[in-house]
Amino acid sequence: MKIEQIYTGCLAQGAYYIESRGEAAVIDPLRETGPYVRKAEQDGAQIKYVFETHFHADFVSGHIDLAQKTGATIVYGPNARTNFEAHVAADGEEFTIGDVRLKVLHTPGHTLESTTYLLIDGTGRDRAIFTGDTLFIGDVGRPDLAIKADLTEHDLAGMLYDSLHRKIMPLANDVIVYPGHGAGSACGKNMSKETTDTLGNQKLFNYALQAKTKEEFIEKVLDGLSQPPAYFAKNAMMNKSGYDSIDTVMERGTQALSPEAFEAAVNEVEALVLDVREAQEFAGGLVPNSINIGLNGQFAPWVGALIPDLKQPIALITPVGKEEETVLRLARVGYDHCIGYLEGGFESWKAAGKEVDTVESVPAEELARRLAEDPALTVVDVRRPAEYEAEHVACAENVPLDYLNDHMAEIPRDKPVYLHCAGGYRSMVAASILKARGFDNVIDVAGGFGAIKGLVPTTDFVCQSKQK
Predict the structure, then answer these.
(1) Hey, how many other C-beta atoms are within 10 angstroms of the C-beta on 293?
(2) Separation of alpha carbons 114 and 138, rounded Å
(3) For residue 164, what is the DSSP state?
(4) What is the phi/psi pair of residue 150, to 5°?
C-alpha cells in the first residue's frame, strides 16, 4: 500500500494518491491530471476512483478530466448533487482499492456534503482519515461558506461539532490525519504549517477540539472569521456544474503573441493585461495599465481576490519559460480565459518601441526621510487588519489589498500616496491596480514594513499634524 500527499504550496492544498495491488485512487485532485496519471503509470496501476471530500471553493478540482482520461468513477458523499456523472455514496459505504478499503464518513458542517474517508488496511485496522475541510491540523473548516436562507453559520457550526464528535474523535489516537489544507489557506483561520499529524495529537492540541460544549465550540469556531474571498462561490459552482477540459484551457492560453498581435488582441476583447514578474522588475518597466500579481507569491488566491470576473479575458506577460505554469495556476482557480502571452516577455515589448510606464519605488530609508520632513504624508498599509493592528506606521491608513477595489474612493488622487505591505509583494499589486485606474501619484515602499520598522514611529506614536 502506498499513500502519497501531493501538496501545492501556492494553494496550501493537499491532494492524495493511494495505490494497492495495481489499483489506485485520488482524493481531491487539482485541475491538472498529468501528475496523477503518471504516478499510476509508474506503479503499473489503474486509477479506479476519484474521491471528493466536498465541493471545493478555493480551487477547481480535476475530478472530471481525470475520470474522463482514466475511466475512474467520481465519488462524492451524501447530499452531493452534480451536473455530471458521479456516484453519490451513502454514509458508511466502502470502496475497495487493492487490499485496502475507503469508508465514507459523512461529516457535514463545512458544507452539507462534506465527507471524510477512513482508510482501512488489509488487516482491518483503521490507518488514516482524509478529512478534506472538516478537520485540519490545528483547526477545523470554516462553517460560513454554505449558508442559505434557512441555514445559518451557527447551524453549520453545530453540524460540524456533531460530525467531529460522532464520526472522527471516537477513532483511535494513532489514526493519521491527512487534511485538505495547511497554513495559508482561507478555508480556516488557525491552520498549522504541518500537513499531517496523528488524531491523538489533534485531540490534545487542536483548539476547536478542546471545547467542552457545542455552544463553546460554535463560539470559538465562528470567532474571528474573515470575509471569504469573492471567487469561492464561483469555484464551488464550477466544481458542481463542470468546466472546459484543462487541455483546451492550456492550448488557448499558451498562444504566443508578438507585441503587435498582443496589443491588437488586448484591444479587441478588452483583455486585462496581467504581468506576473517580480515586483521590482515590474516597477522598472511595464506595459501601461497592466496589473502585477507576482507568480512567486500566493498568486492564485490573489488573482481570485482581485479579479472578480472569472470569464475576464486575460493577456499574460510572464518571465520567459513561465508561460505554461502561469496559465495552469490561473486555471486552478477557474480563470480559464487567457487569450495568450507576450512572446519574449516585456523585453520584446520594449524592443518593439511600444509605450512603457513605471512605478516609483523608494527604499524604507527614503520614506523615513520624507516623513521626517512632512509627518502628514499619506501612507497606506495594504496588509490584513490583524497585521496592521499588531504594529503599523504611525497614522498610516489600513486598506487591505483584499478590499482595495471596494475602498478606492478613500485614496486621494491629488497628492502622493506611499503604499507598503509586509515585504513588498502586495504593495506592488496595489500600486499597479491604482496606476491602471488613473492614480498617478502612487509610490511603492520597497521591502515593506519589515524594512520600515525601526526607521519611523509606529503604532503608539501620536501624529499631531494629522489630528489638527
Answers:
(1) 27
(2) 19
(3) I
(4) -110, 15
Q: How far apart are CA 368 and CA 425, in angstroms?
A: 20
**How far is 157 from 172, CA to CA, in rounded Å?**
24
Is residue 240 in some structural domain?
no
**Helix segments in 270-336, DSSP class H:** 279-284, 299-306, 323-331
Nearest Cα to 5, choosing from 195, 192, 262? 195
Q: Are the C-beta atoms of 181 and 187 separated by less than 8 Å? A: yes
pLDDT digits (tens, 9 = 90+) for 298-351: 898 899 989 999 999 999 999 999 999 999 999 999 999 999 999 999 999 999
Residue in the structure block whose three cell numbers are 513605471 = 358
pTM (2 decimals)? 0.92
Asked whether 363 and 446 are in contact (CB, 8 A), the reply is: yes
The answer to whether residues 286 and 149 belong to one domain is no
Asked if 115 and 56 sit in the same domain, the reply is: yes
Average predicted confidence (pLDDT) for the chain:
95
Measured distance between the N- and C-terminal CA atoms of the chain, rounded to whole angstroms: 71
Asked if residue 302 and residue 201 are part of one domain, the reply reads no
Residue 66 and residue 95 in one domain: yes
Which positions ≥6 away from 150 have C-beta within 8 Å? none
